[in-house]
Write a structure and sequence with these properties.
Blueprint (H helix, E strand, L loop, with lengths): L4 E7 L7 H20 L4 E5 L12 H18 L4 E4 L3 H10 L3 E4 L9 H8 L2 E5 L17 H18 L7 E4 L8 H9 L1 H5 L5 E3 L5 H6 L10 H13 L2 E6 L2 H14 L18
Parallel strand pairs: 1-2, 1-8, 2-3, 3-4, 4-5, 5-6, 7-8
The structure holds 6-hydroxymethylpterin-diphosphate.
């Protein structure tokens, strides 16, 4: 099986608004980016605004100030492709000018009216993620008749709109938006039928890492850091059901899990083996 690419999450959401605090946050974020690349990240996803439920919105200038210097610093020393996680066209524009090649938008380019036109003009890849509601209220009472059908249909028509705005087909990726306006049942149904989203013919991006649905399955996974097992289980499920990119926090562990999965199931016509190694192992 083809191994999905691993997108490592780098957040620059500083608590301190002093210059010193910002600098330290940026240095820490750069060190984190280096670590993720050393751990095997294929893409770095840079975010300057939290999309967690009830998170406070960040102004455009503040967000640009957070992400652009970091993207420039990464670009100076690493060849790794960079994605910008933002809903604001001005931030995407600044990030692409600084060296990002992908716009990851949790609003599927709906936040601003000109988002699709800006994406077309930038010529970058775009991740259209599904969300019901907005980040502040999305988890209040998510409701669907048939979540799989509705998410596929919403994303399919969103892709058409974005195509009409001039974004090239090969630049569009779709993401079911696990945890964005979805109950536990909605999340697991979407994962269970991820193949239906993949069948739309666009590469699928999947973000399950450390998400709250894992706690809904295993009540002991209270903190985000307690959810590695569930994150890996869901990532491997995604890998075998059509995900092309996995957005994760624990890059090293995810890459190892994928390597083992691929050694066991290398794809049609190939026999399971340990690439590059031989001999007795236990
Ligand atoms: N999830 C979060 C942010 N951006 N982008 C895509 N394409 N898909 C996702 O599932 C996705 C995303 C939110 O993840 P969270 O764990 O709340 O925060 P973060 O990962 O930014 O630390």
């Amino acid at each position: 099986m083809t191994r999905p690419r691993v997108m490592g999450v780098v957040n620059v959401t500083p608590d301190s608004f002093s210059d010193g605090g910002r600098f330290l946050d940026r240095e820490a974020a750069l060190a984190h980016a280096r670590r993720l690349v050393a751990d095997g990240a294929d893409i770095l996803d840079i975010g300057g605004e939290s999309t967690r439920p009830h998170a406070h919105p960040v102004g455009e200038t503040e967000e640009v100030d957070r992400v652009v210097p970091l993207i420039e610093a990464i670009r100076r020393e690493l060849p790794t492709p960079i994605s910008i996680d933002t809903m604001k066209p001005a931030v995407a524009r600044a990030a692409v000018a600084a060296g990002a090649g992908m716009w990851n938008d949790v609003t599927a380019l709906t936040h601003a009216q000109d988002s699709p036109a800006v994406a077309a003009e930038l010529g970058c890849e775009v991740v259209l993620m599904h969300m019901q509601g907005d980040p502040r209220t999305m988890q209040d009472d998510p409701h669907y008749e048939d979540v799989v059908r509705e998410v596929c249909s919403d994303l399919g028509s969103r892709a058409l709109t974005v195509l009409k705005a001039g974004v090239r087909r090969e630049n569009i990726l779709l993401d079911p938006g696990i945890g964005f306006g979805k109950s536990l049942e909605h999340n697991v149904q979407l994962l269970n039928r991820l193949d239906r989203l993949a069948a739309l013919g666009f590469p699928v991006v999947l973000g399950v890492s450390r998400k709250r649905f894992i706690r809904a399955v295993d009540a002991s996974a209270v903190e985000a850091g307690d959810r590695l097992g569930g994150s890996l289980a869901a990532a491997l499920w995604g890998a075998s059901h059509g995900a092309a990119i996995l957005r994760v926090h624990d890059v090293r562990e995810t890459v190892q899990a994928l390597k083992v999965w691929q050694a066991i199931d290398p794809g049609p016509g190939q026999s399971p083996s340990r690439p590059g190694q031989s001999g007795v192992a236990r």
